[in-house]
Every structure is written in structure tokens, then in C-alpha cells.
Design goal:
Layout (H helix, E strand, L loop, with lengths): L6 H17 L3 H7 L5 E6 L6 H4 L7 E6 L9 H13 L4 E7 L3 H7 L7 H14 L1 H5 L3 H22 L1 H8 L5 E7 L6 E3 L10 H24 L1
Parallel strand pairs: 1-2, 1-3, 3-4
Antiparallel strand pairs: 4-5
Helix pairs in contact: 5-6, 8-10
Length: 227
Amino acid sequence: MTADNLQELFQKNRDWAAATETREPGFFTRLLQQQTPQYLWIGCADSRVPANELVGLLPGELFVHRNVANLLVHSDLNALSVIQYAVDALMVRHVIVVGHSNCGGVRAALENRRAGLVDNWLRHVQDVRDLHDGFLAGLHESLRVDALVELNVLEQARNVCRTTVVADAWQRGQSVVVHGWVYGLHNGLLEDLHITAASNDDVGLAYDTALAQLKQRWRQRQAQLTA
């Protein structure tokens, strides 16, 4: 692939478009006329985690927002605008926060690695680390990154629930369910972390239950590792 014009990517695009149209004649014409996804995916920007492909959905079926370490920061107008448009305009029914194993951003936050400007963004992951510092300290160092990945998903899912957009949708009776998942780079599988909230009243219990299950699961792995 040349550095100048990236013709290989244009050719791959033409091949993909032709194969898609052959498989489903009229696909792009239909896609042009409507966008009705049922799901908003808030995931990591990592190139190894292609949202649509992981769940086998076509363009138009999954609304996606991605950033380093799949964060939902309450001052991030970009992410908040995506949620607002997804919930209020597209009427998505599910908002899914998805982390992934061996996340480089989470590892950097855990180990205080300096990487430049992104360190300021990852401060939010360090806040999660500090919130659960005692628990993480009790795990073997080989387990801490992926444990923090899951803890971060729970915190970000709770942050989604606390946005004015989602809270207002629930208040007016709109059906929106918030979920937290994790993707395994080692096996290609998604895992439900069981933080699922469909109303303002659900959030506290959903978070507490998911956190308790998470800690129990990682303590069992710790016990197996040291047995």
C-alpha cells in the first residue's frame, strides 16, 4: 500500500460495495432512505474491536460512538451529543457500553504510564482505579488490567444512566435499556457484565449487583491462580 494515495483501500471499498450489492440488491438505496438502529454502542477506539462485525450487524443497524477506553465523561459534549441524538432522534432502545480485554488505555491508567495528551483523558480511568484501589491491590498483577477494564465498564454504564438525556427519556416513559459488556480479544466473544438498567430506579441496584458479581468472579480467578 502506498503512502500517497492509499489505492488499496479504495479498491477494497469497491470490492466490499459490489459484494454487498450482489448479496442484497438495492441495499444502498434502502440505506440511503432510512437510519433506524435499535442499538447505540459506546466502545473503545481500538482497531481490534470493530463494533458492527462483532455482533453481525449491517450498516444502519448499529449507531456507534468510540473513544480511548470507552469513557462517558459528563463534560464530553461529543459523547453526550451522540447519546442525545441516538435516544431522542433515532429512538434507540439499547445503549451498550463495551470495554475489551487487555485495553492499552486502561493498562496505561493502571500503571501510570505517560503517553502525552491522552494522559489527561485517561485520568478518568485512574479515578475508577482509585475508587476500587483496595480490591485491585488484592489481585495478582496479571489480573488487574482486565479487572479494571470491567470496573471501568460498570462506571461508564452508570455514567450513561446519569446523563440528563437518559434520565429524561426514562422520566417520560421512553423504553431505553443501558447495558455493560466486555469483549475478549483472546476469543472474540462478548460477555454481559449484568449491569442492566431500564429506569432511574434500576440504576443503584443494577450497579451494586454487577459490582458484587464482578468482585466475586475475579476473587475466584485469584484463588485459582494461587491454588
